Amino acid sequence: MMSIPLPPTEFMRLVSGDQPDPEAHFQEVGAEIVRWLRAFDLVGPDVTFLDVGCGCGRIARELAHESLRAYVGFDRHPEMIRWCQEEITTRTPHFRFHCFDIKSAYGKLDGHAGSIEVPSFRFPFSDHEFDTCLVSSVFTHMPLAEIDHYLGELRRVLRPAGRVFLSLFCSWKEPRVREANYYHVRPSFIQMVERRGFTWSLAGPACHGDEHNWYLLTRPDGRDGRTMRVS
């Protein structure tokens, strides 16, 4: 089996937080998310996959052992993307990585302020290009207005019946911000998802309660425009 090295520890800490064993945590979380991707049939030989906020390749390292038509990842951290290009693309040429200088609340932690405002950032991909989009630990650092813009872009680049697997920090009582983390009340997020025309379900490794929640969104296949809730 092809071996891809682990990224520098400083990158893994930025992606996974201040864990006692950053290497183990980085690998365990990556493997768990990919298990869910398999469980929901979000990967396969005919799948073109977009990894939004791919970081230093936590998911890409695991997906390199899967059959995919193509993988595209993008992030705002230039050194992480450079590492992915040098260590992953050289081993798996159908895995491509791009860096875009997007502003983010995470700039307080990683030192990259960014120059592109999120509402003006158009994903540089064609309409209906992807079958699956992963947005792991990205919306967790965004206010709702920025999430809304990304939902619009995700719907645009997804093929009919394409799906998004995403994580969100939720709060039962009221929205709050803690350092670079944004906690949203579920009804506000769901209203936005439905307004963008997605169907949705709570799903994945942590799907109920306060803090971390995972959602599976589906773009309608075009035969009708109805939005359906599945919970």
Query: In the CATH classification, which architecture applies?
Result: 3-Layer(aba) Sandwich
Low-confidence stretches: 223-231
Number of domains: 1
Question: Mind telling me the C-alpha Rg?
Answer: 17 Å
Task: Give an overview in words.
The chain is α/β, with parallel strands linked by helices. It has one domain (23-218): Rossmann fold. 31% of the residues lie in helices and 23% in strands. The chain has 7 helices and 9 strands; from the N terminus they run H-H-E-H-E-H-E-H-E-H-E-E-E-H-E-E. It has helices at 9-16, 22-39, 58-63, 78-89, 107-110, 144-157, 186-195; strands at residues 48-52, 70-75, 95-99, 130-135, 158-170, 176-178, 181-183, 199-202, 211-218. The strands form 2 sheets. The protein has a 7-stranded mixed sheet with strand order 3-2-1-4-5-9-8, sandwiched between helices. Helix 1 (9-16) packs across helix 2. The longest helix is centred in the N-terminal third of the chain and has 18 residues, at 22-39. Residues 223-231 have low confidence and may be disordered.
Brief overview, please?
By secondary structure, the protein is an alpha/beta fold.
Structure keywords:
231 residues; alpha/beta; Rossmann fold; 7-stranded mixed beta sheet; two-stranded antiparallel ribbon; globular
How are the SSEs ordered, and which strands pair?
Elements: H1 9-16, H2 22-39, E1 48-52, H3 58-63, E2 70-75, H4 78-89, E3 95-99, H5 107-110, E4 130-135, H6 144-157, E5 158-170, E6 176-178, E7 181-183, H7 186-195, E8 199-202, E9 211-218
Parallel strand pairs: 1-2, 1-4, 2-3, 4-5
Antiparallel strand pairs: 5-9, 6-7, 8-9
